[in-house]
From TrEMBL:
NCBIfam families: aroC, PRK05382.1. Residues 94-108 have a biased composition (Basic and acidic residues). Homotetramer. Gene3D superfamilies: Chorismate synthase AroC. Keywords: Amino-acid biosynthesis, Aromatic amino acid biosynthesis, FAD, Flavoprotein, FMN, Lyase, NADP. It comes from Deinococcus koreensis. Pathway: Metabolic intermediate biosynthesis; chorismate biosynthesis; chorismate from D-erythrose 4-phosphate and phosphoenolpyruvate: step 7/7. FMN binds at R128, A129, S130, Q246, A247, A290, K305, P306, I307, A308, T309, R331. GO terms for molecular function: chorismate synthase activity; FMN binding. This is Chorismate synthase. SUPFAM superfamilies: Chorismate synthase, AroC.
Length: 382
């Protein structure tokens, strides 16, 4: 499975093409849209999310609620485009440009992207650098998650901490509804209240906030990924997609940073054979050993930096005059930490779906399902 996304933040639409999915996967718009809506949610987002009501159109590769085996095209309209038609027009002319951005924002793509592609209107950079693009990746991810769920794999994401305020409750699969119901994506009501206050304060101060997301998957068969080839190691591939999401700056598999402070005897997960299958009582490895799934829950933790656009701007330079100036103030989120968990679950879901199809792939879902079941039975009895 592979995919490509295209589209600008204020252009007419986002487009994604997915290729390599088996035929006969049940797939409907209602499998995709709830993920798009979840990605728009979360306390601390800006006014753009009031304008947009993201939904997907399925333009190819699906008939009568099932994949055909052909490439799948998904489209999400940008409602805000109607306010930007002239500015975003592909037609030549339009100089001097309206809404040109020349005061590069530290922490955003503006300055480096401008130098790289020789743009002096930094809007040419930010339109594609913007995390609006993640709507297309979430649409793709929702399809990957549907495939995984048909193969007995379930995922979750929650906010582990926001601006240093930690979810104290240990993660439980029983808390999925509470996480969905929380606009901070945490089941810890007390932590959510403190996070909300902190976001309100940051907004008043013209500041922004980051945090740490945790994504989990259970039901993964043993042996996805590789210990043989560096570029097929699943830990490496997961880290790559996580860091490819706008504003993600660190990835941890399991409790990697805490494990680094302990002796091996207190870290590695002892193995037992009980009631006809292999078992571990601990999961410090976070479900991955030597670049492969080991059958335990996959645990990925990701650090998101604070949003780059500050309403109380940092010093910068105007790229046309080279004079000192204040960084541009664009409409912006105060924090997007809750939304980021949704995006991360989707992009990791894509990697897992790809790894599943590499190991068990076939032309139809039935073939893939048979192969996954056979592998599960084998790894228990082994
Ligand atoms: C869901 C989401 C929403 C975001 N919203 C904003 C925003 O409103 N303003 C902003 O400056 N950055 C926002 N960002 C982050 C920038 O897109 C990102 O920092 C920028 O593209 C530079 O890339 P880098 O941080 O990965 O280095 C958002 C990121 C995510 C994941
Ligand atoms: C549009 C989305 O997020 C945007 C990501 C973003 C950025 O710089 O990354 C900047 C803001 O764009 P705008 O100025 O249009 O409000 C966010 O709203 C989205 O998540 O769908």
């Amino acid at each position: 499975m592979r995919y490509l996304t295209a589209g600008e933040s204020h252009g007419p639409q986002l487009t994604a093409i997915i290729e390599g999915l088996p035929a006969q996967l049940p797939l409907e718009k209602s499998d995709i849209d709830p993920w798009l809506r979840k990605r728009q949610g979360g306390y601390g987002r800006g006014r753009r999310m009031v304008i947009e009501t993201d939904e997907a159109e399925i333009l190819s590769g699906v008939r009568a609620g099932r994949t055909t085996g052909a490439p799948i095209t998904l489209v999400i309209q940008n409602r805000d485009h109607r306010n930007w038609t002239e500015i975003m027009s592909p037609e030549p002319g339009g100089e001097p440009r309206k809404k040109a951005l020349t005061d590069a924002r530290p922490g955003h793509a503006d300055l480096t992207g401008g130098i790289k592609y020789r743009h002096k209107d930094l809007r040419d950079v930010l339109e594609r650098a913007s995390a609006r693009e993640t709507a297309a990746r979430v649409a793709v991810g929702s399809v990957a998650l549907k495939l995984l769920s048909e193969l007995g794999v379930q995922g979750a994401n929650y906010v582990s901490s926001l601006a240093g305020i930690e979810t104290r409750q240990a993660f439980s699969w029983d808390d999925l509804d509470a996480i969905e119901d929380s606009e901070l994506r945490t089941p810890d009501v007390d932590a959510a209240a403190r996070m909300r206050e902190r976001i309100d304060q940051a907004k008043k101060d013209g500041d922004t906030l980051g945090g740490i997301l945790e994504v989990r998957f259970r039901g993964l068969p043993v042996g996805l990924g590789s210990y043989v080839h560096y570029d097929r190691k699943l830990d490496g591939r997961i880290a790559q997609v996580c860091l490819s999401v706008q504003a993600m700056k660190g990835v941890e598999i399991g409790r990697a940073f805490e494990n680094a402070t302990r002796p091996g005897s207190g870290v590695h997960d002892a193995v037992y054979y009980r009631e006809g299958s292999y078992a571990r009582d601990t999961n410090a490895a976070g479900g991955l050993e030597a670049g492969m799934t080991n059958g335990e829950e996959l645990i990925v933790r990701v650090a998101m930096k604070p949003i780059a656009t500050l309403m109380k701007p940092l010093p910068t330079v105007n790229v046309v005059t080279h004079e000192p100036s204040d960084a541009a103030r664009e409409r912006s989120d105060t924090t997007a930490v809750p939304a980021a968990g949704v995006i991360l679950q989707c992009v990791i879901g894509c990697v897992l779906a790809e790894a599943m199809l590499e190991k068990f792939g076939g032309d139809t879902m039935a073939e893939v399902q048979e192969r996954v079941s056979a592998a599960r039975a084998y790894s228990q009895a082994y």
